[in-house]
Amino acid sequence: MPCQPFTRFVASARRWLGIGLLALTGAAGADEHAPLRVMTDYWPPFRIEGADGRISGLDMDLLAELERRTGLRFEVHRAPWARGLAALQSGAADLMTGLARTPEREHYIDYLPLPYYSCAPRLYASPQVAPAIARYDDLLGPTIGYVLESAYFEPFDSDKRLKKFGVNNETQLLQMLALGRLQLVIGTDCQVDYELRDPQLARQIVRTRFQPDSRTDLYLGFSHQRPLTAERQLIEGALRQMLDEGWVQRAAWRYQAASGN
């Protein structure tokens, strides 16, 4: 039989071990249920500004379905696109949606392997200017509006010869183009064509003759600064299942039908 002091030591050790495990379990549980911080900006029809200030759209539908399938929670914060990317780079945010994949971003973004949607970069101008933009070299003259920190196509993104003017979002680009403050803008067909549902805007803005032969895949991406391996695996599995089921395409079709495209 063990001596009495040793027995008391074992009992005390078990008690403290139990308290330690309970504390660890509680901390893990709190962390497990903490919402993931998502940075985003308005980009119809993916992120639409509501009358009450709430964000709706395809990406919000996507996040809601991922919540339902995984049990995770998302906390969406709106900020200019460049600021959202900076938050992802610093680890102040966990993930973003609607991300184009570039070598530079891969240094700080852990992309899910499958894109969930695809758009095309497109150039727009007034009906008077658009016919004159017939080839890539015609881009060398006019000032071209673009969204800061966006990726469109090569060689456009890295071409130092072009006169570019950066703004926070594509809606701002279209407003400046309609007012004659920009001669040319670049955007994506998914977003700009959705905005051109407005008949008045559609009379002022059209596609140019030259259009790049390029597509832009859209991804979900996590910050490399945030160790979220389990959450990433859950989201990747759920998204893959949604794509296989055609869920994303059906959800997108509702917005395409609303825009008449």
Automatic annotation (TrEMBL):
Residues 35-259 form the Solute-binding protein family 3/N-terminal domain. The keyword Glycosyltransferase does not apply. InterPro entries: Solute-binding_3/MltF_N. Transmembrane segments: none annotated. The keyword Phosphoprotein does not apply. It holds the Pfam family SBP_bac_3. Keywords: Signal. Residues 1-30 form the signal peptide. PANTHER family: AMINO ACID ABC TRANSPORTER SUBSTRATE-BINDING PAAT FAMILY PROTEIN, MEMBRANE-BOUND LYTIC MUREIN TRANSGLYCOSYLASE F. Belongs to the bacterial solute-binding protein 3 family. This is Amino acid ABC transporter substrate-binding protein, PAAT family.
